[in-house]
Amino acid sequence: MNTLFNRSLLILSILAFVATSCNKSSDDLFGTNAPETELSLKSANLSSSSSSNVIMTQIAPDVAGCGETTEVKFLAGQKIEAGLVSVFNTEDKLFVSVKMNSPWVISQTQVYVGKAALVPANKKGNPQIGQFPVKNSFPMYTNLVTYEFNLDDFEETFMVAFHADVQKLDANGLPVQSETAWADGTQFVASGSWASYFTYTKQECQSCVYETVYFEMFGGQTIPVGNLVVTNDEENLYVTYDGNNGWKFATVQLFVGSLSGLPINKQNTPVPGSFPLKNESTSLRETVSFVIPLNTLPECYIIAAHGEAKLADANGNIIQSETSWSFGTQFPNTNRWGWYSSYCTQICEQ
């Protein structure tokens, strides 16, 4: 299931560049922001050890994640559920975030993301958080920290170790309890500290699959002459007349829009000659296609497809001609036969 990660508040965005090798550390970065604001560290991984600049920016768009989001408890003092750590990826970015449960806040973070074999640790296997490549201080505290990495810098499955110094605030915003916190998971060493990590596997981003809808076309009211083939992508609607069993189309007229906008005469009969989309030809075509921008259409609409269907013999001589319509709902308030088909634009929900 794909998720959305909202970043709509005023954000203090710290751009940091640190070495991809875990034995290189970056300069400490710091920012100040009050509780109930969001701090986002952009491009936190990367390929050089050059340091930071600090900017104020408004980040409004939602970020759509691929696949499943991994969520683990953020435990303070080993047993207190002080927040939630979330990890997800898009096609090219990785997001590692911690959201604190009120009244808990963060004053300092140390984060490692990468190969398990390269995590900074002492001879006993306990992690050395002071050497974690991403670390930040928040003198005024924060309740949300988000790190953004380049996804290509990581293997298919990798370690995430998230440590922080956290405080519990009273009603006046003053700290009354201080603890260290780790993202819940597997302990680094069974008999050492309670420091823990978890693993994350890159999630595949599925491209949207739009269904193709087929409406039968009938000539002379009862003779199957082909199909009207309809689909859409993010930008356009695609409508194709597709003849079969030897039937082909000469002139075709197409209306796509609201039923109230359908061109009709005083007898409420549709007037194909007044349809805004048409392809006039004396030659016969097995397929005739139209592309209509979706921004010109409502969410749901009718498709009234009219065409001159003709059947030819082996020598190309016309042996039968019929007026044809795509099948659907009978046109209202008229004695003339004919139908319109109904369609709603398919929406990609990644």
General description of the model:
The protein is mainly β. The chain folds into two domains: 198 residues, no CATH class; 132 residues, Immunoglobulin-like, CATH 2.60.40. It has no helices and 26 strands. Strands 2, 3, 4, 5, 7, 8, 9, 10, 11, 12, 13, 14, 15 and 16 form a 14-stranded mixed beta sheet that branches. Strands 17, 18, 19, 20, 21, 22, 23, 24, 25 and 26 form a ten-stranded antiparallel beta sheet that branches. It has a two-stranded antiparallel sheet with strand order 1-6. A hairpin with a 3-residue loop joins strand 8 and strand 9.
Question: What's the count of strands?
Answer: 26
* Helix content, binned percent: under 10%
Number of helices: 0
Low-confidence stretches: 1-61
Quick recap:
With 350 residues, the chain is mostly beta strands.
List the helices and strands and how they pair.
Blueprint: E1 4-5, E2 10-15, E3 29-30, E4 38-42, E5 53-58, E6 63-64, E7 66-76, E8 80-89, E9 93-100, E10 104-114, E11 134-142, E12 144-150, E13 157-169, E14 175-183, E15 186-187, E16 196-201, E17 213-219, E18 223-232, E19 236-243, E20 247-257, E21 277-279, E22 287-293, E23 300-312, E24 318-326, E25 329-330, E26 339-344
